[in-house]
Design goal:
Layout lengths: L1 E4 L2 H15 L5 E4 L5 E4 L10 E2 L15 H9 L2 E6 L4 H13 L3 E6 L2 H11 L8 E4 L2 E4 L3 H10 L34
Parallel strand pairs: 5-6
Antiparallel strand pairs: 1-3, 2-3, 2-4, 5-7, 7-8
Length: about 190
């Protein structure tokens, strides 16, 4: 397979295409006597004196399904949710909120004295107030939708994952309606 390119932008595009297909193959680059730059996985003709073997850097493409804005936000401002075994309802609501908003996050469950000490040091506090969240270097103790939205918005996480980013809360119990009157017996 030989690929000949006459201009640099096309050459770079072809190089990228070759890199994606060739994976770990050897790549050769040379300029012939007419000035044509050639990239190939085959060695050049014997009359070519200067041959380069460009090194291609490995790259990783996140295929997790996140949109670009979410991927960049997660890379620059990772989210960590802090919970504990005895934090049931509030932590479940916070977890559900992050999932519904489409936020990739790491959950740290405070299960030991060492975990609690690390939390207190991280948040510069004396007690545990859970759930708590960090977004990059920003932090928030306790769950409050407006504050959490503000932190996530400022980090660049889009709200487009769900139409309404508010967490679901249990509906208030319905008040029993008055029973409908019994149908009158049909007159005979």
């Amino acid at each position: 397979m030989r690929i000949v390119a006459t201009c640099l932008p096309i050459s770079l595009l072809l190089l990228a295409m070759i890199a994606s297909v060739a994976d770990a193959q050897t790549l050769y680059r040379w300029v012939d006597k007419n000035g044509k730059v050639t990239y190939s996985d085959q060695p050049p003709p014997k009359d070519i004196k200067k041959v380069e073997q460009p090194r291609l850097r490995e790259s990783t493409i996140d295929t997790s399904g996140l949109n670009y804005a979410s991927q960049k936000a997660a890379q620059n401002f990772p989210v960590t949710l802090y919970t504990a075994a005895d934090c049931k309802e509030d932590c479940a609501i916070a977890r559900s909120y992050l999932r519904k908003r489409g936020i990739p996050f790491t959950e740290k469950v405070l299960a030991s004295a060492e975990d609690a000490a690390a939390f207190k040091k991280r948040f510069a506090v004396d007690g545990l107030y859970l759930p708590s969240m960090t977004v990059g270097n920003l932090q928030q103790q306790g769950f409050e939708v407006g504050t959490w939205n503000g932190l996530l918005d400022s980090a660049g996480y889009p709200r487009s994952a769900i139409p309404n980013a508010a967490p679901s809360t249990p509906a208030a119990p319905a008040t029993p309606a008055e029973p409908a009157p019994a149908p009158a017996a049909a007159a005979q």
